[in-house]
Amino acid sequence: MDVGGTHVTAAMVEPRSRSVVAGQSFREPLNADGSAEEILSALVRCGSRLAAGPGTHWAVAVPGPFDYERGIARYAAVGKFDALYGVDVRAALLSHLPGAAGASFYNDAQAFLAGEWWAGAARGHDRAVGITLGTGVGSSFLRDGRTVHEDEGPGVPPEGRVDLLRYEGLPLEETVSRRAIRRAYSGAASAPGAAGAAHAAGAAPGIDVRQIAERARAGDPIAVDVLSHAFRALGTVLGPCLAAFEPTVLVVGGSIAASWDLVAGPLRDGLAGTGSSTAPACKLERAHHLADAPLLGAAHLAAESRTAS
Fold first, then answer.
1. Which pLDDT score, from 0 to 100, does residue 66 have?
2. C or N terminus of the chain, fewer CB within 10 Å?
């Protein structure tokens, strides 16, 4: 199961083929601002659509802050899932999902990169970095298939979280995130001198990153500038980390990575502009499994853990 800020996906994963079983993947909308009952009901409703028999083990990719070992949510004033604070999510799932015999939890960004290392763009790489772009910025650093923490090598930020780094004195997510991009476009579009019906419409609160990307492709200069600035900023912040960690691949996923034609160029420019080479050997890749990587990674990590024990 992959729990995101706007949706939840449940799927059956086949370890031998390293893939999601055809016809066994379902997605439900999720209101991250809803009550605990609403959020948990969405998870159970989505998971119950699978043809899971008795003895099923659930591997769940979920954003932090979360007590992954105990399965308890720790969200507090983070802008999503606040109603789940202190809730034993593991107990809730095991009580209501048919046939559930166990559940393990993994950071969603770490599961994403593990999935791409196991079955996607990072496969065959000894050292990799993964970034997810969506409601926020997720990150993971991987060496020999294992997540690397800040005290285990140079270049890894505190808690392995790029979102804790700063750009122009502010937290990175004030520039690179769904809310930051929407805010920047709305503000620029409604500023004095921003002419045209497209710009006026752009100031509407409902416009999302997908529509901003569509406008950029149609030639809207404000949309182009806003997106370019965001992803160039990401490269500027990320560049020194890559230079120190020395990965051979940087994999980018998340919903915003679907607009790769608008992400890749500015991101490369930001990386190059840091003044420290990210090494010609470091490839920049869009995730091979944009929708499924966290599902694949969570399943892989759970299988590895169960085998080890």
1. 95
2. C
Same domain, 137 and 281: yes
Predicted confidence band of residue 110 (pLDDT cuts 50, 70, 90): very high
Domain-located, residue 304: yes
95 and 23 part of one domain: yes
- Contact, 298 vs 60, CB < 8 A? yes
d(CA 112, CA 68): 15
Instruction: Say if CB 242 and CB 236 are below 8 A apart.
Output: no
Distance CA 29, CA 41 (A): 11
Residues contacting residue 117 through CB under 8 Å, at least 6 positions apart: 123, 125, 128, 142, 145, 297
What pLDDT band is residue 309 in, cutting at 50, 70 and 90? low
* Alpha-helical runs (H) found in the chain: 36-47, 89-96, 108-119, 178-189, 197-202, 209-217, 221-245, 260-272, 293-308
Tell me phi and psi for residue 289, to 5 degrees.
-125, 75
Residues 277 and 304 placed together within one structural domain of the fold: no
